[in-house]
UniProtKB/TrEMBL annotation:
Keywords: Cell membrane, Disulfide bond, EGF-like domain, Membrane, Transmembrane, Transmembrane helix. Residues 455-494 form the EGF-like domain. Residues 285-313 are annotated as: Disordered. Residues 288-301 have a biased composition (Low complexity). The chain crosses the membrane at residues 507-531, 592-611, 617-636, 652-673, 679-698. Belongs to the TMEM8 family. Disulfide bonds join C459-C469, C484-C493. It is found in: Cell membrane. Residues 303-313 have a biased composition (Polar residues). One of its GO terms (cellular component) is plasma membrane. It is a multi-pass membrane protein. This is TMM8A factor.
Length: 732
C-alpha cells in the first residue's frame, strides 16, 4: 500500500473571552477521501507582558458543521436538539506556549471544524488605550495520512486479502448504493501463517466527532462471522479496517464479502413531478388545466405500486432565498399522505457545503380530519446520510452510523417542531409513518395527512426581540450567531434567567437620557456670561447624547431619530469638542485666536474620530493640548500681572478646585468602573459629573460687559436705516 501524507495549515487567530458564539474562533478544514490517520497540531501562546496570566483555552471539534457549544450554561430554545461537543482544554500557566496533538484514526471525509475560545468574559468595559489586554493566540494545523490505492470491495463478490502484521492493518472500502435498506458484512476463511487460531478485529465506518458510531466486530477461530447494518449511508464510500490481534510476526489471510438489501421506492414518476412543477410556477397559464388530466388519471394506477414498495418518496424542491437561508417546497402540496405500510420519505438537501452554518427547522402539523383511526400516532424521524425505514416503538430513530431526531404527532398533540442547530453537511431525510395503537395489522388501509414545513434559517426566530442575528465569516465560510442584549442569553436569546425587566429597561433609558439635562446649568452659565459659542456646543452635546443613548438601549425602550452610527458619531464629537472649548475658554485667549483654535481643533477632532472612534487619545490628545495652551496662557497672564493667575482665592476654592475634582472623578468612573451590568447608572454619573464640572470651570465674564446686554451689540440702528434710505434715494 502506498501512503501519502498531506499538511494543511491556517493562520493563527487572537482568542477572545466568551460572551457569545462570535467570540469563538473557528477553523475550517476538509479531510480528503481514503484518509486513515488524522492528526491535529494545536498551538496556543500568550504574550510576555505583566498583564498576561495563566489561562485555560477550550477547543471544540466537530465533523460536518461548526460545533454547538454552551460555555455559559444557558438554555437552548424549546424543541432544539443539542448534543454536547467533543472538547479538550489547553492550559497556559508558566509556559508561554503550549503544543498539543490530537489523533483520529479512520476519520470521516469532508468538513471538519475547530472552535477555540477563552473563559467567560468578565463584563468590564475597557476604554481603548487605558489598559493593554494580553494577546492569546491559537493556531490549528492538520496532518493527514492518506491511502492512495485503497482496495475496493465489490458487493456480492468475495475478496481474499492478507493482513501482514498487527502494526499494518488492512483498509478496504465499499460503495453503498442509493436506496440501500441494509448491509451485511461477512468475514470467512480466516487463516494465520503460523497455523494458529485466527483472531482479527473489524472496524466498519469512520470516526466522527462529537459522537462516533463506528461498528466493531471481533472474529476468533476459523468460523465465519458477520455483522448486519440497517440503513447504511447512501451514495457514500464505507471504510472497513481489519487488524490482526495475533502475534507480531504472523500474517492473517481472510475473505470478505459485502451484500446489500435494496429498497424499491414508490413515488410519482419524474414526468408527473415535472408537470406539477411547471404548473406551480406557471399558475393559471392557458392549457394548464388540460395538462393536469393525465396526472389525475394515473393516480389510481400508482396507488397499487406504492403499497408494494418499502417507502413512498415525495418530491421536494429546494429554494435558495439568501445566505444560509433555504426553503423546501413540496410539489404535491404542503400536506403529505402517511400510511402504516411504508414510511413517507422527504429529501432535504443540505450538501452544498454552505448550509451548515444555520438552523434547520422542521414543523409537522397533523390534519385531524384526515385521521381514520382514533389514537393513531404519526412517528417521524429526521436523519442525515440515510433515512430510517422502519418507524416503530422499539427503534430509537437510529441508522447504521448516526442517531436521528425523533418527532411524533397525534390527535392529542397535533403539532411538533424540531430545530437542528448547525446541521452537518449531508443529505437529510424526513421519514413519516402511521403507527396503530394495537399493532400494524389493524390499520393496513388507514391513511392520514401531515402538513410539513421545513426551512433553513441563519438564526431561529431571528434571535427574538432581545437579540441580533449576526453573519460571521471565516475565510470563505459563512455562519450565523445570536448576540443577546438586555440580560437575555442562550443560543437564540431565549434564556431569561438574567434578563432585565421592562421596568429596569425603562429606568436605564431614563437615567442615560435625562442625565444629559444636567448640561442645562452649564448652558445657562455660558449664556449668562456671554459665551455663546460654548453654549451652542453644550446644547449640541446634550441633544445628541440624549438621543444616542435613547437609540443605544438593548431592550424595548428604544427610540432612534436617525441612523445609529450618525448618532454615535455626533455624540462622541460633541463630548470631545465640549472639553476642547471649555479648556480654551478657561485660557482667556484673544477672541480671534480662541475662535481659530475652536474651529481648527473641531476639524482635527472630527478627523481623528473618523479614524478611530473609541481610541482614548481622541479624547486625551485634545485635552492635553488644550491644557498646555491654558497653562501657557495662565503663566503669561501671571508674569504680566506679577502675581498668580487666577488671582482670586475664591475663584480657586469655590470654582476651579470643585470643577477639577468633578472632572477627575468623572474620568475615573468612565475609565475604570463601567461594566455591562452597571453601565446605565455609572455612565449616567459620568454625564452628571462632566456637566457640573463644566459649569464650575467656565471663567467669569469680562468686567466691562454687562449680562444680557443685547442692545449694546446693535448700535446706530437708526443711522443704518437712514444710510440705506439715502443710498436708495441716490441710486433712484
Amino acid at each position: 500500500s502506498l501512503y501519502v501524507s498531506e499538511y494543511f495549515s491556517q493562520s493563527a487567530q487572537k482568542l477572545s473571552f466568551y460572551s457569545w458564539y462570535g467570540n469563538a474562533k473557528l477553523f475550517h478544514f476538509r479531510v480528503p477521501e481514503d484518509t486513515v490517520l488524522l492528526r491535529w497540531l494545536l498551538q496556543a501562546s500568550r504574550g510576555k507582558g505583566p498583564e498576561c496570566t495563566g489561562m485555560e483555552i477550550t477547543v471544540h471539534f466537530r465533523h460536518g458543521a461548526p460545533p454547538v457549544i454552551n460555555p455559559l450554561g444557558t438554555r437552548f430554545p424549546a424543541n432544539a436538539t443539542v448534543r454536547p461537543s467533543y472538547n479538550i482544554s489547553i492550559t497556559l500557566s508558566s509556559a508561554v506556549q503550549n503544543t498539543t496533538f490530537v489523533n483520529v484514526t479512520t476519520p470521516a471525509a469532508g468538513d471538519w471544524f475547530i472552535a477555540a475560545h477563552l473563559p467567560e468574559a468578565a463584563g468590564r468595559i475597557e476604554v481603548k488605550g487605558f489598559s493593554t489586554p494580553c494577546p492569546y493566540m491559537f493556531q490549528a494545523d492538520m496532518f493527514v495520512l492518506r491511502l492512495t490505492d485503497m482496495p475496493v470491495l465489490e458487493p456480492g463478490v468475495p475478496m481474499p486479502h492478507t493482513v501482514v502484521s498487527p502494526a499494518k492493518p488492512l483498509h478496504v472500502k465499499v460503495f453503498v448504493p442509493k436506496h440501500a435498506a441494509g448491509m451485511r458484512f461477512q468475514l470467512s476463511s480466516c487463516v494465520t501463517s503460523e497455523q494458529r487460531a485466527c483472531s482479527v478485529r473489524v472496524l466498519l465506518g469512520s470516526i466522527t466527532l462529537p459522537q462516533s458510531f463506528q461498528k466493531s466486530l471481533t472474529c476468533t477461530g476459523s468460523i465465519n462471522c458477520s455483522l448486519a447494518l440497517d440503513s447504511p449511508p447512501w451514495e457514500k464510500w464505507l471504510q472497513i479496517m481489519v487488524e490482526s490481534l495475533g502475534t507480531a510476526n504472523a500474517s492473517v489471510s481472510v475473505e470478505m464479502l459485502a451484500s446489500f438489501t435494496v429498497c424499491r421506492p414508490g413515488s410519482t414518476s419524474s414526468f408527473l413531478n415535472f408537470i406539477s412543477l411547471n404548473q406551480s410556477q406557471a399558475g393559471g397559464r392557458p392549457g394548464a388545466a388540460g395538462s393536469s388530466a393525465p396526472a389525475a388519471g394515473e393516480a389510481p394506477r400508482n396507488a397499487s405500486g406504492q403499497r408494494s414498495s418499502c417507502l413512498q418518496s415525495q418530491p421536494v424542491v429546494r429554494e435558495d432565498l439568501d445566505v444560509v437561508s433555504v426553503r423546501y417546497r413540496l410539489l404535491n402540496g404542503p400536506s403529505v399522505p402517511v400510511s402504516p405500510l411504508s414510511p413517507t420519505l422527504l429529501l432535504l438537501n443540505l450538501n452544498t457545503g454552505v448550509d451548515s452554518g444555520g438552523s434547520l427547522v422542521v414543523n409537522l402539523l397533523l390534519n385531524k380530519t384526515s385521521v381514520s383511526l382514533a389514537n393513531a400516532t404519526v412517528a417521524a424521524c429526521v436523519s442525515a446520510a440515510s433515512p430510517v425505514l422502519s418507524l416503530n416503538a422499539t427503534r430509537n430513530c437510529s441508522t447504521a452510523f448516526s442517531q436521528g431526531y425523533p418527532l411524533s404527532v397525534s390527535t392529542s398533540s397535533a403539532e411538533a417542531t424540531l430545530i437542528v442547530l448547525y446541521p452537518q453537511t449531508d443529505d437529510w431525510f424526513l421519514s413519516l409513518q402511521l403507527l396503530c395503537p394495537k399493532g400494524q395489522g389493524e390499520c393496513t388501509s388507514a391513511e392520514t395527512k401531515v402538513t410539513v414545513f421545513a426551512y433553513l434559517t441563519p438564526c431561529f426566530n431571528d434571535c427574538g426581540p432581545y437579540g441580533q442575528c449576526s453573519l460571521l465569516r471565516r475565510h470563505g465560510y459563512l455562519y450565523a450567531g445570536c448576540s443577546c442584549k438586555a440580560g437575555w442569553g442562550g443560543w437564540s436569546c431565549t434564556d431569561d434567567s438574567k434578563a432585565q425587566s421592562v421596568g429596569t429597561q425603562n429606568l436605564a433609558t431614563l437615567l442615560l437620557t435625562l442625565s444629559n439635562l444636567m448640561f442645562l446649568p452649564a448652558i445657562a452659565v455660558a449664556v449668562y456670561r456671554f459665551y455663546l459659542v460654548e453654549a451652542s456646543v453644550y446644547t449640541y452635546t446634550m441633544f445628541f447624547s440624549t438621543f444616542y443613548h435613547a437609540c443605544d438601549q438593548p431592550g424595548v425602550a428604544v427610540m432612534c431619530i436617525m441612523d445609529y452610527d450618525t448618532l454615535q458619531y455626533c455624540d462622541f464629537l460633541g463630548s470631545v469638542v465640549s472639553i476642547w472649548v471649555t479648556i480654551l475658554c478657561m485660557a482667556r485667549l484673544k477672541k480671534i485666536l480662541k475662535y481659530v483654535l475652536f474651529v481648527l481643533g473641531t476639524l482635527l477632532i472630527a478627523m481623528s474620530l473618523q479614524l478611530d472612534r473609541r481610541g482614548v487619545w481622541n479624547m486625551m490628545g485634545p485635552c492635553l493640548f488644550a491644557l498646555v495652551i491654558m497653562v501657557t496662557a495662565w503663566v503669561h497672564h501671571g508674569a504680566k500681572r506679577r502675581h498668580c493667575y487666577p488671582s482670586s482665592w475664591k475663584r480657586w476654592v469655590f470654582y476651579l478646585l470643585p470643577g477639577i475634582t468633578l472632572a477627575f472623578i468623572a474620568i475615573s468612573v468612565y475609565a475604570f468602573m463601567e461594566t455591562n451590568e452597571n453601565y446605565y447608572y455609572t455612565h449616567s454619573i459620568w454625564h452628571v459629573l462632566v456637566a457640573c464640572s463644566v459649569a464650575f470651570l467656565l471663567p467669569p465674564r469680562d468686567k466691562h460687559k454687562k449680562p444680557w446686554a443685547w442692545s449694546q451689540k446693535l448700535t446706530c440702528r437708526y443711522q443704518i436705516c437712514q444710510n440705506d434710505r439715502e443710498e436708495l434715494y441716490a441710486v433712484t
